[in-house]
Amino acid sequence: MTGKAQPLSIKIMNTRAVGFFVAVTLPIFALASARAELKWEQTAIELHPGLADKQAVGHFKYKNIGKTPVRFKSVHSSCGCTAAQSQKDEVPPGEKGEITATFNIGGRTGTQVKTVTVETDDPTQAVTVLTLKTVLPETLTITPTFVYWTGREEAKPKTISVKAGKDFPVKNLTVTSANPDFLVKVEPATTGEWKINVQPKQTDHAMATQLTIQPEGPKDAPKFVANATVTGTPAPVSVVPAPASVAPTPVKVAPTSSPGTH
Q1: Which CATH number fits domain 38-135: 1.10.3720.10, 2.40.30.170, 2.60.40.10, 2.30.29.50?
Q2: For 230-259, what is each residue's pLDDT tens digit?
Q3: Distance in Å from the first CA to the final CA of the chain
């Protein structure tokens, strides 16, 4: 009797085990199939703005290919010169959208790389880093951008060198000083290079100026700036006289009497 009942017991146990497996795994599969998932068209963009552009804007597009909504927790850029913004706070299943990254060019030149960090409740990838690479035209290289004179230094001219980039055809430069107490003179060096001689009229007191450098030739060419400063005469150093030496007080010594003297 015991030998015949054993297969039935095993069959019942196997059925229970299968039922338990199904009961545990079905919610997991259902949860996985119902998850949110944000798919990006690209996470890196390279832009080439023109000379007249003041901003460079990257559009990072996405789509929710999951079964549940995706919520944005935060979107922030790597520096203050770049602003990042999302179109919406929540993306329903099947919908598309984009994150815009706006880079303010200002006086920057060369290649600029900025990032935008996006945090969502997407369980597959909660954090995504977007990269915005902006290749700016090489315009003018100004060296140095700041010259100065110390107090009591002779008011001799100092030179700022300017070189035009290969894709920036400059014919000449016009330089003006915001302060008439600084004299400026532009001299051509070699092709595409100039020297700006800056000279203060005096150095006995502090003053400063901003130099505006306007290239002539390229259409919509931006203006550039350099700065010059006189720090002024340093404050005189107070000299404290040493205390007068005190002469030693003479000590009177009473004479001693000779032996036998009364």
Answers
A1: 2.60.40.10
A2: 997 665 555 555 565 555 555 555 555 555
A3: 156
